[in-house]
Structures are given as structure tokens and as C-alpha cells.
Amino acid sequence: MKRILIVDDDIDILTVVQLVLDANGFEVAAISKWQQIYTQIDTFKPDLILLDVSLGTQDGRNICKQIKSGNETKHISVILFSANHNVENNLSECMADSFISKPFDINNLIEGINNQLMETNGFN
Questions:
Q1: CA distance 83 to 86
Q2: CB–CB of 78/91 below 8 Å?
Q3: Measured between alpha carbons, how far is 66 from 53 in angstroms, rounded to an integer?
Q4: For 11-124, where are the E strands, in sequence order?
Q5: How many CB atoms lie within 10 A of CB 79?
Q6: CA dist list (Å): 41 to 30, 95, 105, 122
Q7: Coil/strand/helix, residue 11
Q8: Does pLDDT of 28 surpass 50?
Q9: What is the pLDDT of residues 49-84, one digit of tens each?
Q10: Which of these, 51, 62, 103, 109, has the minimum number of CB atoms within 10 Å of its CB?
Q11: Maximum alpha-carbon separation in the chain
């Protein structure tokens, strides 16, 4: 079972995404405080992180870049998601693997996650 860590400071979105991913057979951890992300990475060991760009005082793109720059974490797929569609234009700067815009269609979310997991596992 693939493990997905969701990071979003909007509790409603966090709850809905967690329920949808649980129902689709993923093992899910969800956090609303970006400060907990590194502890969760160490303990939960996610295959993929679904990371909101706007996290209050922190920018998810900066967190993504730190994750992708670390020797212990660079293998983890990171999908950024945001209501700001301009974010998609600079994914390479933060080294994100993919982007999903908010609001999102549940089927597109699941498809995007599955596609990214397949790419990571060499099934593309």
C-alpha cells in the first residue's frame, strides 16, 4: 500500500482529500502544520507528498525544494497543489514532480497521484 502525506493548512481540504485517498486504498497521514512535515517524513516514510503551496507563513515551494535537495528525501515524489495557477509555471525551480490546481476534480486528483507513483516506480 502506497503512503501519502498530505500537507495543507485548510482543515476542510485536508479532511476531504484524506477521506478520498483512504477510500482509494492509500495509507494516508494528514497534517495542517508545515512545521511537522520533517517529523512525519521520518516516521511515516511517505512515497508521495501532496503539498499545498500556501501554508500560512511558509511557501510550499520552499519546503519542496528542501525535500528534493536532501539526500534522505530526494526520492519522495512531491505534488504541489494550489489555487494559484501561476505556480505551475515554475515547478522546475522548486523541483516538484507535478502540480494539481485547486479546486480539483477528485478523479483528476487520484489519476495525478497514480500517474506520479507509476512514474516514480518506472512504469511510465
A1: 9
A2: no
A3: 14
A4: 27-31, 48-52, 54-55, 58-59, 77-82, 98-101
A5: 22
A6: 11, 17, 27, 22
A7: helix
A8: yes
A9: 999 999 988 999 999 999 999 999 999 999 998 877
A10: 103
A11: 37
Q: Does residue 20 surpass a pLDDT of 50? A: yes
Domain that holds residue 110: 3-120
Place of cell 520533517: 38
The percent of the chain in helix, strand and coil, each rounded to the nearest 5, is 50, 25, 30
Q: Which three cell numbers stand for residue 16?
A: 476531504
Strand partners, 93: none
Provide the CATH number for the domain around residue 36: 3.40.50.2300
Instruction: Report how far apart, in Å, the C-alpha atoms of 52 and of each of 1, 55, 83, 98 are.
Output: 23, 7, 9, 12
Summarised one tens digit per residue, pLDDT across range 104-122 is: 889 999 999 999 998 876 5
Instruction: Band the pLDDT of 124: cuts 50, 70, 90.
Output: very low
